């Protein structure tokens, strides 16, 4: 593609390459600094709504700090997403302690993620909310590059190519609670 067709600012249907650092309550929980920038098509809901809305009009090398309230990020915590499951439903290999994050499949084969809230004598309380639900987020972002999407990317609504994991800017929070690593 020649430079004449290269977009100059972020608008709908533009592929954005973005460096970011995500902090929650002052603690860094995710960053692209140790990997490639994320890539997504603006306006297609590939990233959280509050961040996407704040990127419009930014140009290559622009940077800004964006504060996103919980309802515009991963939503508010839903009390109905916290359920009790019989202890007998868990394999002995699963470390049943608060903070452990599990990947499960429902009866339709859909992958679900849950965090163990507590373990009782007969049940385990699981939280199926996103780990960042109910939390306000702060992103420090820098626009690295802008380009036109291919016809196929536009049709599919996401970026293709080398970066398989960049379809969504959703924090992949699968490391468990920090307390788990500090076990004695």
CATH topology of the largest domain: Chitinase A, domain 3
- Intertermini distance: 57 Å
Structural class: mainly beta
Order of helices and strands: EEEHEEEEEEHH
The quaternary organization reads as single chain
Instruction: Please give the share of residues in helix.
Output: under 10%
Low-confidence stretches: 163-184
Please give the CATH architecture of the largest domain.
Roll
CATH class of the largest domain: Alpha Beta
User: Averaged pLDDT, please?
Assistant: 87
Number of domains: 2
Radius of gyration: 19 Å
- Bin the strand percentage: 25-35%
Major sheet summary line = 5 strands, antiparallel
Number of strands: 9
Number of helices: 3
Instruction: Identify the overall geometry.
Output: elongated
SSE topology sketch:
Blueprint: E1 15-24, E2 27-31, E3 38-41, H1 49-55, E4 63-68, E5 82-86, E6 101-105, E7 111-119, E8 123-127, E9 137-147, H2 151-156, H3 178-181
Antiparallel strand pairs: 1-2, 1-3, 1-9, 4-9, 5-8, 6-7, 7-8
């Amino acid at each position: 593609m020649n430079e004449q067709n290269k977009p100059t600012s972020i608008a709908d249907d533009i592929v954005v390459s973005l460096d970011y650092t995500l902090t929650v309550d002052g603690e860094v929980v995710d960053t692209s600094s140790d990997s490639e920038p994320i890539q997504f098509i603006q306006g297609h809901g590939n990233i959280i709504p509050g961040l996407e809305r704040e990127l419009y009009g930014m140009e290559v090398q622009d940077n800004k700090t964006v504060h996103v309230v919980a309802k515009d990020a991963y939503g508010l915590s839903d009390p109905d997403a916290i359920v009790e499951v019989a202890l007998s439903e868990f394999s002995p290999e699963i470390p049943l302690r608060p903070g452990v994050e599990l990947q499960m499949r429902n009866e339709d084969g859909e992958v679900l993620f849950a965090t163990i809230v507590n373990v009782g004598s007969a049940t385990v309380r699981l939280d199926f909310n996103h780990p960042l639900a109910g939390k306000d987020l702060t992103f420090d972002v820098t626009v690295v590059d802008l380009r036109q999407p291919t016809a196929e990317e536009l049709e599919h609504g996401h970026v293709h190519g080398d970066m398989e994991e960049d379809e969504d800017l959703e924090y992949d929070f699968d490391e468990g609670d920090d307390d788990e690593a500090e076990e004695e």
